[in-house]
Amino acid sequence: MDYIFLSKTKLFNEITENEIKVILNCLKSYTKKYDKGDLIYKQGEIISSIGIILLGSINIENDDIWGNKNILENISMGNIFGETYACIENEEIMVNVVAAEPCEILFINIDKVLRTCSNACKFHIQLIKNLLSLTSQKNISLTRKIFHTSPKSIRGRILSYLSYQAILKGNTEFEIPFNRQQLADYLSVDRSALSNELSKMEKDGIILYNKNKFKIINLNIFS
Amino acid sequence: MDYIFLSKTKLFNEITENEIKVILNCLKSYTKKYDKGDLIYKQGEIISSIGIILLGSINIENDDIWGNKNILENISMGNIFGETYACIENEEIMVNVVAAEPCEILFINIDKVLRTCSNACKFHIQLIKNLLSLTSQKNISLTRKIFHTSPKSIRGRILSYLSYQAILKGNTEFEIPFNRQQLADYLSVDRSALSNELSKMEKDGIILYNKNKFKIINLNIFS
DNA sequence: AAAAGTATGTTGTTATAACAACAAAGGAGT
DNA sequence: ACTCCTTTGTTGTTATAACAACATACTTTT
């Protein structure tokens, strides 16, 4: 186990490598490998472990009753997933967790962290604090997705998403972590309509793009 | 201060009335009253206090760059708001918090809870645990809104929302906490289009409704 | 290098939502 | 009961997104 890597993750923020070693042992954690497309957590399951991505990345997806796939989030190496459901008892997970590429996951039973946390155990308290911070941040990323999908027009959604990416990267030229289909799913629009709108926006001189590289030319927010 | 009321809230779960009294004093909490429509937290502010609603209810809203108002959530008596931003340092709040009716709010500085939490203080640990649970639950309610707004058709969104409400209330007949405009905002659709679609659904024999009372007759999920 | 597979772009048609403008119903206050 | 005001429903028009089907890259495999 790469404790140095783990000590740099947000989950183990302010926890030393040796302390991590103790925690992982005490909480009976284990690792598992997955291939691209493998289902890690299935909609409807009751889970009590969080996952830390040691290698690769995963997608949080929802398949609605009509079969439309909706990508809520892509989570990469060093980050965690499942904490929302693991922190609430008997709450069915409403999403699918799917390996976006070959990956390796470390699972930690969070029930134990929450139930056995006593004043005596300093690591546990820090772990809970870190979880709180992470959950809050996930909260914000969900709020952000809601922002990007609340404009009624496709152009509005694209502008919302791209302008946020530009701010995030601190540059009007940037790469996005989605391909067209994934971006369409994220914004809840049809892929071909998205492609179509992107090329219209290029014609209108608002953006330049090639694959997942974008450049914002003139963000006319009133158009 | 009504400590009995507070001891029944989720935030003070497993904390006694006397302990609450100590905490509130120690954390320099204070209360404030608002009229309907008053702005409690404004988009862009850096906040470090969470609010507990002692009386009334509040709306979490977003006004986008084109002036569309988007209601993310309605939060009622005994529940908290602002914890997402208060738990992360220097994170601007991206929403407006508005009094949905006359209300009274108890503010608690969360910075102090997180920073001064030591092994010696048992209440603080419990408070953080409770916050973690609440944040996780808020997370789920955001995910739920994403579900309700991800179908591409208005009917799909209405069905998603109403069928969830029916499950929540455990009855095919129920009241919803929104008026038409608020529901339209929540589902990110035009109000008149929503009214129109609702009456079509009634004609199609799927639902019956009057104002905010609904009855699901025949949830044909494949239509 | 050819073949197969995947991702992206393009176009035309159809379905649907937004919008605007108005009508009707329901409350609140005088 | 009348007026004012707010909420909800209705209709027709216009704008836009979904959808389908195909074309054109670009990748990966053999």
Please explain how this structure is put together.
The structure is a homodimer of 223-residue chains. Chain A has 223 residues and is of the alpha+beta class. Chain A is built from eight helices and eleven strands. A four-stranded antiparallel sheet of chain A has the order 1-8-3-6. Chain A has a four-stranded antiparallel sheet with strand order 2-7-4-5. A three-stranded antiparallel sheet of chain A has the order 9-11-10. At the A-B interface, helix 3 and helix 5 of A face helix 3 and helix 5 of B.
Q: Estimate the helix proportion of chain A, in percent.
A: 40-55%
- Subunit arrangement of the protein: homodimer
Uncertain runs of chain A: none
The helix/strand order of chain A is: HHEEEEEEHEEHHHEHHEE
Q: What are the key terms here?
A:
homodimer; 223 residues; 4-stranded antiparallel sheet; DNA-binding
How would you briefly describe this protein structure?
Chain A has 223 residues and is of the alpha+beta class. Chain A is 41% helix and 24% strand.
